[in-house]
Request: fold
Amino acid sequence: MIQFSKMPTALVLDPDMTVSAVRAWHVIYTETLGRPGWDLSYAQIAKKIRSSRRTTVYAVGLLMKKGWIKQIPSNKGPGAPNLYVALSEPETPVGGAVDCTRGGATGCTRGG
Reply:
């Protein structure tokens, strides 16, 4: 399969992905490109993808759960905007389990 854009074809063709999740990945990718440590809040992402905050939280959680984005711990303390990295290939968490210790991972249950 020929890649036709910076957006991973596997992400676009993933049957579990929502349109909001694909758009959120694109926003995170473009906003953090060349700007390490760029903060993005759910409200900022929601505004850029023209979606509700609730839909955006779900979309970002889905991307995290499937390994398409990673959340980086912020040194700004609790309540600081989220630091994300958009990945070009899904990253499988160690042991195949989703890390539910950080916020944003909707649909997580403790222990995997």
The mean pLDDT is 77. Residues 61 and 103 are 9 Å apart (CA to CA).
